[in-house]
Give the backbone structure.
Amino acid sequence: MPNAALEEAFAPFVGQDFGPPEIARDPVNEAMIRQWCDAMGDANPIHWDAEAAAKTHHGGIVAPPTMLQAWILPGVRLADPDRPPSDKQEELHALFNQHGYTGVVATDCEFEFERYLRVGDRVTAKATIESISEEKATALGIGYFVVTRTRFENQDGELVGSMVFRVLKFKPSQPPQQASSGDAAPAKPQRIPAPRGHDNGWWWEALDRGELMIQKCSQCGTLRHPPRPMCHACRSVDWEEQPSAGTGSVHSYVIMHHPPVPGYDFPVAVALVDLDEGTRIVANVVDCPFEDIHIGMKVECSIEELGGVKLPVFRATS
Amino acid sequence: MSQSRRLGDVKVGDALPDLDVELTAAIIVGGAIASRDFTPVHHDRSAANAAGMSDVFMNILTTNGYLSRFVTDWAGPDAALAKVAIRLGTPNTPGDTMQLRGEVTAVDPEGGTVDIAVAAKNSWGDHATGTVTVALPK
């Protein structure tokens, strides 16, 4: 349900400049360039060695182009929690915050460079709120994408470069988690183990032993997977297990890119495999170029420990 | 670094040398300060915690700084960056490793530019992915 009051309030912001053009406090200088290069481990001599730089087509010391925005950011003042909104972008973010869209995350950033800045140049930036999307449901929560464009000019009014920035202002879907204390690195997310209950625990325990099992109805012999208490064919609750040879063919598959689930390297191939015994199982297809995976491809199962969990994976039958 | 790569030496499919960056608080905070970005989550752990993060995390300017350095390390001092377009993903925090990878996806002999598909991965997934366009001497 879009937030009509919010949408009405933010509409006038679209197309507006943040405020008057921002003029760099300091001209482009070697000290700030060197500090940047130190932080980025950038050894390109065009940024610090006047003699070497003069021999390149740059003709002298130039600033790293991706440093463009650094010349006009306000520095330490940014960290002042009591600082009132100082431009239209901050007013817009404050408006989103009032409506509960307190989260902010940058999603895309695009720089284009027309010319390299030289020592002594002074940068002026003019930023505009270019667009605000309709309400979107995202993995982080519902929110709106805000696109801004900043034009950077030098002291002669020449275009140096431009930056397009897209952020999501969203309603956090969960309260922020408290981080653990201490200096240990944060725990890396792992695969999430499947819950093991009365009806399916036996199947996972078989996997732990390295066996792929299939559930079979004791009354009518119909196979079923995933494990469940009742036969879908005859409604019997009597069942037995039989081992699968682990061979089969791809019934269907997808290459999953998004959303990223912890513990996997994306993209990942997810297949529905027809086991030769006559039932189906969902699992990853590994060690196979995505473009080679096809419906009907013969595959065989191997049970492997992945992120602390034993799981069946399938490879193309050689 | 002293040698500049020439347009004629580059072909589609060429891989850039891998660059793995062991992330420390010094790199993350140092990058934020060098870019004059004092947004608290990039230097103040308690502010990062309040925002739901376990630790300070890298600001976007530093990501761009590393990506452009990764490309110019390969391209040499005569190269000129024309475009850096990235999609942002998982945050870079201290203790993690940022793995920078790149591959030439287009060579434009007339325009004198090369497109490089770049990816910066960390243990959570893709920190940033995108395209860097760089002009090379002919």
Summary: Residues 54 and 105 of chain B are 36 Å apart (CA to CA).
